[in-house]
Amino acid sequence: MSTQRLxxxxxxxxxxxxxxxxxxxxxxxxxxxxxxxxxGVDFDGSFIFQIEDVPLESNxxxxxxxxxxxxxxxxxxGLSEGELEAILEEAPADVRDRIxxxxxxxxxxxxxxxxxxxxxxxxxxxxxELRAELPDLLAELTTQLExxxxxxxxxxxxxxxxxxxxxxxxxxxxxxxxxxxxxLVGDYEQWTTLVRGEGGVIDMLMSGDFEIDGDMQKILxxxxxxxxxxxxxxxxDSRFIF
Length: 242
Hints:
Blueprint: E1 12-13, H1 16-27, H2 30-35, E2 47-52, H3 66-77, H4 81-88, H5 93-101, H6 106-115, H7 122-125, H8 128-131, H9 136-148, E3 155-162, E4 165-172, E5 182-187, H10 188-195, H11 201-207, E6 211-213, H12 216-221, H13 223-235, E7 239-240
Parallel strand pairs: 1-7, 2-5
Antiparallel strand pairs: 2-3, 3-4, 5-6
Helix pairs in contact: 3-6, 5-6
């Protein structure tokens, strides 16, 4: 059995629950409140954090954090051969064919098939009877990916920042869904660098790791608040899906 502990969904970046936890952390920061006083007053201070190239196509279930992989293996190993056979009766034909072509016990073959499924393939290569036996957290993460990532692999996180607080957050799949004043754009790798606390947001902007759509002079005027936002993100207890 696994010794790894599954975490609450809000600890997994980049999910909507993580964004909500980030909002709460922003609103608990006295430093941010001080440094961002006046931000968004008489202008639109809302932000889109645009996270591009989320690796849905290249990363499989086996590449998820180890506690999730261990939980998947534990759940499947707890099923009898008869239970597995009953689950496979409802599987898509191509999935059954791939499992039959593998070597090893039925449990080993099913486990290999599941772990090699990419995140993009989950909707087509898993089915209700199988999903019911997998960890609830994996189902939650799958729902997050299906509902909150655009078809091109982009996450758009909306933050309504105004006068020292974050009034609202939202995850959208099209920029037209929300009006915003600023947009911070970077690929998934750069965002994870920032959220891990391994890079400074102003330095990453200046080096071209991030692009800004909006008034850069406003950003520089409130550079301490921008630094606070990055440091708060780094302080959120985070696990990374990819």
